[in-house]
Amino acid sequence: MLKVVSRKQNSRFLPQWFHQEFPGKDFSETRNRLSGIGVHTVCREAHCPNISSCFSRREATFMILGDVCTRSCRFCAVKKALGLSLPVDTEEPEKIAEAVRALGLKYAVITSVTRDDLNDGGSSFFAKTIKLLNKNILVEALVPDFQARHESIKEVLDAKPAVFAHNIETIERLYRELRPEADYKRSLGLLNSAKKDAKETFIKSSLMLGFGETYQEVIQVMKDLKENGCDILTLGQYLAPSKEHYPVKDFVSPEEFDDYCLSGLSLGFKAVLSSPLARSSYKAQEIYREACKNV
């Protein structure tokens, strides 16, 4: 077993491998440009630790269907409003297209909050946004579980994203505690259904570590994902957004992340990104290109 750094040993400071450069001019320009257009990014709403490096490279992960989620995942910084019917900005797809053009992106990741208040879970907005974008660029769609509605999954796939992604997030044992409105087997079923409906589309998922999972449990999730059609996998370290969120139980060392990467490749994933700062859409274009090489 490789080294895991106890949270108690790092109660005041993050391990040194999380240190990043201070934001510069390019970061501010990207942030201001996106704010001016009026689009949401998961980079800002979810307090992503990579926002400085990504914004400095004029990259962002766009979030549609507003900035308020209808679920209560204990690890997520996004605003929540359970049981409410929320408004939808009908001009959002056009705003996303404008932002993509402004940043000069050739590969765009589109995700969303979970919208259980919408009949289709928001799949029509995904489809419209993808269709606006994929005339000129590649699109990765990172979707919620759509309550396992096959028609919603198919609607997104019919828009022909290069990658169809859905995050498993954590091990099955911790779902009830961390994701009370989600279901582990439902998420696996969504990935399986997507792969069957679009065999030539890459299927992707992501797993966060540091919740108190064991090495064997992580490997089991990786096996479950592979058996259900997942082609691309990312693994990263969970960082609690605040004291009110689920606490970090441990910090996984870079060496253990390397070990998970090797395990994932040995299981047959076409591409694996595994490091403390890895996130579901971090270096998305690079990992897509890696998967293409291994088709």
Show the helix and strand layout.
Elements: E1 4-6, H1 25-37, E2 40-41, H2 42-45, H3 51-56, E3 61-64, E4 68-69, E5 79-80, H4 92-103, E6 107-112, H5 123-133, E7 138-142, H6 150-158, E8 163-165, H7 175-178, H8 184-197, E9 202-209, H9 215-227, E10 232-237, E11 250-252, H10 254-267, E12 271-274, H11 284-293
Helix pairs in contact: 1-4, 4-5, 5-6, 6-8, 9-10
Radius of gyration: 18 Å
Which structural class fits the helix and strand makeup? Answer: alpha/beta
CATH class placement:
Alpha Beta
Q: Give the terminus-to-terminus CA distance.
A: 32 Å
Structurally, the number of domains stands at 1
Give the amount of beta strand, in percent.
15-25%
Question: What would you say the CATH architecture is?
Answer: Alpha-Beta Barrel
| Biggest pleated-sheet summary | 8 strands, mixed
Q: How many beta strands in the DSSP annotation?
A: 12
User: What is the topology, as strand order, of the major beta sheet?
Assistant: 2-3-6-7-8-9-10-12
Task: Report low-confidence residues grouped into runs of 5 or more.
Answer: 1-11
CATH topology: TIM Barrel
**Overall 3D shape:** globular
State the fourth-level CATH superfamily.
Aldolase class I
Amount of helix: 25-40%
Query: How many individual helices?
Result: 11
Order of helices and strands: EHEHHEEEHEHEHEHHEHEEHEH
Would you tell me the overall average pLDDT? 92
